[in-house]
Request: fold
Amino acid sequence: MARCFGSKHTTPTSLVLQQFLIECLVVAPNVVSLESKLADEDNLCFVTLKKAGIIVEDVDQLVRLPSPLAEKYYSRWLFPNRAVANPSSLHELITKVVGNMSASVLRQSVVGETNFPKEATFQRIFMEGLALNTHRTCSICPELSRVFSSSPTDGDQPLRIDGEIDFYLNGSLRWGLELLVNGDEIGEHMAQFTPEGKYAALNVRDRGNETGKVTSVSRMEKRVTVFFQLGDFSRCSCIFGMDKTIHDIPLKR
Reply:
């Protein structure tokens, strides 16, 4: 892939630019608005990425990664530090990803009357956590949309199921994750995944309330619900599937 994009581009020169490019990655092929002027050093890095064909920008300063190849290639530059091994379970992965979230970033990202960050903020932070806690051989595909095959039963031919998930972890894991914020209902596309099928996705729900304590929510085997205290975000309460244990997870500052 390096032959396609050359060697003159660099890693992001600041945290601001890195976070912007990660947001471009997690929403691809959709566009992200470049709302503020870049510093000189960031602008130089940004220009080299455009010249290499890794990102494109239109006249309205809307930026996107133009192809799946560009997404896969530059994700290695955005996330150079990967784990030495993959997690042994989804429980372990989600615990580490949530604990890796920055409380200060969440506090600074609250919007509107909800006093809670937008889903795009959680998607970007979640992507960072997934990369940090999986091995480099594990490809992370955000906004995966393709046709899946269900598991055959009783000798029947497998059915083809249209599905879309926020994150798909490839390699030996083959895990799908759907991220929902403040109880927003899961899309109709998720209902098309077979309940016991090979591609049934884990539904991660982020919620906020005044106490950060677990409230009455429906529990499902393949659902994780995370409760944050509004205005604080220093820690959260987490329930995994049907497990009655409430896990207290501290977040990074």
Remarks:
- The longest strand covers residues 140-149.
- Residues 186-200 have pLDDT under 50 and may be disordered.
- Residues 2-78 form one domain.
